[in-house]
Structures are given as structure tokens and as C-alpha cells.
Design goal:
The chain has 28 helices and 17 strands. It is α/β, with parallel strands linked by helices and 723 residues long.
């Protein structure tokens, strides 16, 4: 077994400490056996860093060198912490604490508050944005929705960099940070926000770290108690540590050096939150005796993808670039990255959706495909294009799997059936475990075919994921009972180790960190978006380059990079592809080089049957439209609507029937926005209907006659499907 091998969903627990080391490459084995003193692991993307550090902890525990309860492993997301707990459990080291910085600090704060402060701990704010809104109103400073979100982020940055309200303007100037409002105004709002929290006996997540640090600094007895509890620390994604988190880590450690940190300076992409790679880059200076191990064998991506990733970093500048890791792919060759230029953004989205549909037809699961963009506002046009192409998708950042209502209800039903055993009539005709699960979940909405409607489809996908999990489980453990599966689900829920829900992932580059797919589409790669317009300084531009590097290294096999020359159809082709691809995309010139770049040309993405049109104008006020949703409605969101409500409801009823017949979600027929646009325009001919965004040639051919019949106030005869 090599590190490149995908492990089973339900691997056997290694029989011994030495067996924990089986399958590790030489560098990973070196990490796993370096159990004493400070250790720094420099791990490139796809090199198996989580594998290395979890095997390190498990080896130490199984060999009797580390006591499980004395180890604290910290990372930055609940998902990563859950994955770590799941892997440790599979390796026979289930008693180890794996938490985020915030959850570890909150647990300690809750435990020690009565002793350190007395009384009840203040209420924890789940979301601070409402209080920031109230603070700005009290300061008589008006913020729109986007400014409110940005000011909230600024307050978070100030707190993790330990900047008080009065010092905020000076800190912004010193860091060359672009403040979303006048720094003096933000300072005023920040101060009022802190006052409101004190008045209401509330704290936020940043306060959890600040208060824990304060208690550990002031109460040496409490600090000593924590140090007696935790003897060994592991910090994942160390390049993302903020000054406040580093301060807390120092207080946890005291004068000891039993610390292992893992990171990659080339994946530092969260400096806007206060993260800095300096702690990683300075680790050898702070710990001269540290063992340093570099992981550069890339088990994730093909040589073609790795070559592009290395090429991106070869042009980088700055301190992080000086410590870049040259990855070496361990996989067999795959297809070259595809570079595609489109006339406009809708054409880019439609072209991407067509390619995705082709990949799915070729056997790539939808859940193994991702579309990654720079900002979340870019998602809508891709949601529309995928819906029009009949491709299921999911937005990254949705509710956690095991917290979904339908999953909780399914768990209750499965647990009840397991307790009832042979006394449950539901299981009379169910011979094996998957059949039992299907029988139980059929009472909660699971069917052999997915339902229509996006909400119903989402619920069905969750239940279908549980059915697939049962099928996988019984293949590994043929004699497993329903009770065994329920226990497995409970353990996975505790570790947040969710099964895969099928659907193309739409995500921002930032939220894609730590994930991987067989096929990745990097879209919108133009100057002004990559690097983003507000990246002014050299340091900010270099972080944008690292962000693109993170995107590239998410791909295992297929990688497609694209850009559009204009925003809207018929617009001026004034955009240029990102500078970061210069010297790598065909026909481009590397920085400082002469002559043409790589051989061949760039594929020119046609928009299918799309014709070049002039700017889309609001049919109410005449303003040029640029927002995808407004372009679909052909009016500004704020302009009055003349939608025929009765027609809209008839169209929705018709769409539901069509979706049911086709076995697809309703949005794959037409989205709500498209139906609204039709109900507003009330087209009387195919030409008028075709001019509505979201009604392409394929849909016009399939559904056009029905839609025009409904718009004419007549009843549809027949099913409206293609012959």
C-alpha cells in the first residue's frame, strides 16, 4: 500500500504500533517517529500532511510514548478537526483531543471561569453582525449590507491582531490595509460595539481567545493545571496562525518544547483575517534544535497539474516564496490543463457547464467536480448555467451534514428500528443491511428516484448519502447489523465525518482550502479578479498568486482554467487574462522573457448558439444591466415589476409536472428567475421567448411550445417532451 492509495471507508485498526507506520513514505515515516522536542513539518499541497501527523500521534499513543489525554491537536476548521478525530479513531488513538483553536479555548474558558472570575460566564454571540449594525446606528454612521459585513471583518481583524479601538487607524496605516470605511469611523463603531457587549454581558469568538489568554497570563495556577493536562501539542495549518493564537499556544506550552507544527507558507491565503506565515518561517529561529521535515511527494495531482502549480510559484516573490516547496508528482500522467477564453461571462458559464456535463457523461461523478471562483458573487451565473444544463450542484458552506434536520430524523428512525430488531414490520422483507436502511428511510422521504424541486432534492440527496454509506459499510463488514451502522453514524457525527452528497461543488477559492476533486474548473481568471482589484501592494498581489496556487492544487486529474473578455454579451472585450498565467498558458510570455510562450494556442470558447448582443438594458428605466440576476429579469431589482402573478403560478405548476416526469429538480427545467422573467415579458412568439435569459436553444426546443401556450392563457396538451 502506498501513500497514494485511497484508503477504505472503514479500514481495520492497525494491530500494533509498528503497523501504524505501514504505508508511509520515508519522509512521512520520519515525521511519525519524531516524537521528542520541537518538530516542524513543511508540507506541500497533496503530500499527505494529515496522514503524517495523525500517524505520528497514533504511533506515539500505540507505542506508549504519548498518553492520549495528554495530546492536544489544534487546527482551524471544525471539518479539519473532525477529519483528524476520525482518522485517529481508525488508527486506534480515539482518546486524543483534536479541536479548533476557538473550541479548545472556549472549553477551557467555560471550565475555569468560575474559579478565575466567578459567577456565570457572559453569553457568547453566535453572530456579531447585528450588534455591529446597532453600534454603527448609535454612532450615526450608515452602512449598507456589504459595508456592514466588511466592518465586522475589520473588527475581527483588529481583535486577533490585539489592536484596541483607539489604535485601529494607526494599525491600518502601518499594515497598508485597505479599510472599507474611514478608519476613524470604524474605530468609533468598534469602540461602541465593545461597549454594547459589556453592557449586555456578552462576548464574541475573538473574546474567547482574548479572555483565555488573559486568564492564562494572570493566573499561573490555572496555566499550570492546563500544562499538567496537555503535555504534547500538534498545530496543523501553522501558516495561518494569528498573533493572538500564537500567544495562546505559547501560554499552553510554557517553557516546554513538545510541539509539532505543520504548514506551507505557499498556502498562506488568510492574511486579511490576521493570519501570518512568520511564525512558521521563524520556527527554526525560535527553536534552533527543531527537527525539520519536508514533504514534497504529491500523491494528489498528476504531473501536468503539479507542473503548473510549480510554475506559478517559480514566479513568486517575497519571503514566503523563498521557502517554497518544489512538488514531485507520484501519479501517472494525465491530461494537460485546458485554457479557454470566452467572449463574455455567460458564455464562460455555459461553456463550463457543457464541459462538466461531458465529464459526468464520461463517468466522472458530479461530487468529484468543482467550480472555483474568486468571490462568492460570481456563483449565480454558474448556478444558472448548471441548472440549465440539468447538472445538480451544491454550494460550499451549507449546513453541516449531520446537523441537517432530515439527517437527524433519519438517525432517530434508524436507531428505533435497530432497537426493535425483528419486531419492526418495516424490516420483514429486508434481507440485508442496505435493504433495511432503504426500508426505514422510505418513511422519511427516500425513494429510488430523486424528486422534483430543489428543496426536496436536497433532502433526498442527504438520505441517499446515508443509503450509499450503508452499501459501502456492508461491503467492508458483511455481517454488520443495523445497530452496528447506527453506532458508526454516531461516531461519524461526533467527528463530523460526513458521507459525500453528490453534486458539483460551487465554492470560492478561499473556502476550497483543504479540499480536493477529480476535476476542477478555475473560472473568471482575469486581471481585476485574479489578482483582485484591491490587491495593491506586492504582498497582497503575492497572496493572490498563492490563492490561485491553492486552486490549482485542488485538482487530481482534470484542470480547466478560463476567463471572459467582457462581463456581458456584446460588451467591450477589454479584459486580460491574469498575469499569473504568463509563460504557462499557450502563446503567453513569461515575465522578463522575450518571444512567444508555450506552443499551441488557447481554445476559444464559443457560447454554443449564443449570438453577440449589445448591452442589456433595463426595460423600465433604460439603465445598462451588469448583474446576472437583473440581466435575466431585464430590469433593475429596484424597478417596479409588472409580473403577471397568475401566469407565474401556472408556469410553476407546469414546471413541477415537467420536473417530476423528467426525474430532475425543478430548477433544471427553468429557475424561478427565468419564470419571473417570462411572467413579466409574456412572450407571444419563439423569438420573444428566446430573448429571455435562461431560455437557450435546447430549452426552447423542448419547452418552448408549452410555455407559449401557457402565456397565451391556454391549456397544455401532452407532456411537452422531445420526441
Amino acid at each position: 500500500m502506498t501513500a497514494a492509495t485511497h484508503s477504505s471507508l472503514f479500514p481495520q485498526v492497525p494491530e500494533s504500533a509498528d503497523a501504524v507506520l505501514d504505508g508511509l513514505d520515508p519522509e512521512q515515516r520520519e515525521v511519525a517517529t519524531a516524537l521528542h522536542g520541537p518538530v516542524c513539518v513543511l508540507a506541500g499541497a497533496g503530500t499527505g500532511k494529515t496522514r503524517a501527523i495523525t500517524h505520528r500521534i497514533a504511533y506515539g499513543v500505540r507505542a506508549g510514548i504519548l498518553q492520549p489525554a495528554s495530546v492536544l491537536a489544534v487546527t482551524f476548521t471544525n471539518r479539519a478537526a473532525g477529519e483528524m478525530r476520525g482518522r485517529l479513531r481508525q488508527l486506534g488513538a480515539g482518546g486524543v483531543q483534536a479541536r479548533t483553536f476557538h473550541s479548545a479555548a472556549l472549553r477551557q474558558l467555560q471550565f475555569f471561569w468560575p474559579k478565575a472570575v466567578g459567577g456565570d460566564m457572559p453569553r457568547l454571540l453566535e453572530r456579531k453582525i447585528q450588534l455591529v449594525a446597532e453600534a454603527s446606528a448609535r454612532c450615526r454612521i450608515r452602512l449598507d449590507r456589504n459595508e456592514l459585513r466588511d466592518v465586522t471583518s475589520e473588527i475581527e481583524w483588529a481583535k486577533v491582531t490585539q489592536t484596541v479601538p483607539a489604535d485601529y487607524p494607526a494599525a491600518v496605516a502601518k499594515s497598508h490595509r485597505d479599510a472599507p470605511r474611514d478608519p476613524a469611523e470604524i474605530s468609533q463603531i468598534y469602540g461602541m460595539y465593545e461597549q454594547l457587549k459589556r453592557d449586555r454581558s456578552a462576548i464574541d469568538f475573538e473574546d474567547v481567545l482574548l479572555l483565555t489568554v488573559g486568564i492564562l497570563q494572570d493566573r499561573h495556577d490555572i496555566a499550570d493545571q492546563i500544562r499538567r493536562q496537555y503535555q504534547h501539542f500538534v498545530v496543523d495549518e501553522y501558516q495561518d496562525v494569528s498573533p493572538l493564537q500564537q500567544r495562546m499556544l505559547d501560554l499552553w506550552l510554557g517553557d516546554r518544547d513538545s510541539l509539532c507544527v505543520v504548514g506551507d507558507a505557499s498556502q498562506t491565503i488568510y492574511s486579511f483575517t490576521g493570519a501570518t506565515p512568520d511564525h512558521l518561517l521563524n520556527f527554526r529561529t525560535r527553536h534552533p534544535s527543531a527537527t525539520v521535515v519536508k514533504l514534497v511527494r504529491d500523491y494528489r495531482s498528476t504531473p501536468q497539474v503539479v507542473h503548473l502549480a510549480n510554475g506559478l510559484l517559480s514566479q513568486a516573490h517575497g519571503r514566503a516564496a523563498e521557502h517554497r516547496l518544489e512538488l514531485i508528482s507520484q501519479r501517472s500522467a494525465g491530461p494537460d490543463p485546458a485554457y479557454t477564453e470566452y467572449a463574455d461571462e455567460p458564455a464562460e458559464a455555459e461553456g463550463t457547464a457543457r464541459r462538466i456535463r461531458d465529464l459526468i457523461a464520461a463517468g466522472v461523478p458530479a461530487g468529484e467536480i468543482a467550480v472555483l471562483y474568486r468571490i462568492n458573487a460570481q456563483s449565480e451565473v454558474y448556478e444558472q448555467a448548471l441548472a440549465d444544463a440539468g447538472v445538480p450542484y451544491q454550494l460550499r458552506g451549507a449546513e453541516r451534514f449531520f446537523e441537517r434536520q432530515e439527517v437527524r430524523e433519519a438517525g432517530v428512525a434508524l436507531r428505533g428500528a435497530a432497537r426493535a430488531g425483528g419486531n419492526d414490520s418495516l424490516l420483514d422483507d429486508a434481507g440485508d443491511l442496505p435493504s433495511q436502511v432503504r426500508a426505514v428511510l422510505s418513511t422519511k422521504g427516500w425513494t429510488t428516484e430523486p424528486p422534483a424541486g430543489s428543496g426536496a432534492r436536497d433532502r433526498w440527496e442527504s438520505l441517499a448519502a446515508l443509503v450509499r454509506l450503508a452499501e459501502d459499510y456492508v461491503r467492508v463488514k458483511p455481517d454488520a447489523s443495523l445497530g452496528d451502522l447506527v453506532a458508526e453514524l454516531d461516531e461519524r457525527a461526533a467527528a463530523q465525518h460526513a458521507p459525500t452528497v453528490q453534486g458539483v461543488t460551487l465554492a470560492s477559492l478561499h473556502s476550497a482550502k483543504g479540499l480536493e476533486w477529480d476535476a476542477v474548473f478555475l473560472v473568471g481568471l482575469t486581471e481585476g479578479m485574479m489578482p483582485i482589484t484591491y490587491a495593491k501592494t506586492d504582498e497582497q498581489v503575492e497572496e493572490e498568486r498563492r490563492l490561485l496556487y491553492v486552486g490549482v492544487t485542488r485538482a487530481r486529474l482534470h484542470l480547466c482554467l478560463s476567463w471572459a473578455l467582457s462581463r456581458s454579451p456584446g460588451g467591450r472585450a477589454s479584459r486580460r487574462p491574469t498575469r499569473f498565467l504568463n509563460g504557462m498558458r499557450p502563446g503567453s510570455v513569461a515575465p522578463g522573457a522575450r518571444g512567444a510562450g508555450g506552443g499551441g494556442g488557447i481554445e476559444r470558447g464559443s457560447g454554443g448558439r449564443r449570438k453577440r448582443r449589445g448591452p442589456v438594458l433595463c426595460r423600465v428605466c433604460g439603465k445598462t444591466l451588469t448583474d446576472a440576476g437583473e440581466m435575466k429579469l431585464m430590469r433593475c431589482e429596484d424597478c417596479p415589476s409588472d409580473m403577471d402573478e397568475a401566469l407565474y403560478e401556472r408556469l410553476r405548476d407546469w414546471r413541477a409536472d415537467q420536473a417530476k416526469e423528467l426525474g430532475q429538480p425543478a430548477y433544471c427545467v427553468f429557475t424561478d428567475k427565468t419564470l419571473m422573467a417570462i411572467a413579466e415579458a409574456v412572450p407571444g412568439s419563439e423569438g420573444e421567448l428566446a430573448r429571455i435569459s435562461g431560455v437557450g436553444g435546447r430549452k426552447l426546443e423542448r419547452f418552448g411550445a408549452d410555455v407559449l401556450t401557457i402565456c397565451a392563457g391556454q391549456e397544455v396538451v401532452g407532456d411537452g417532451e422531445e420526441d
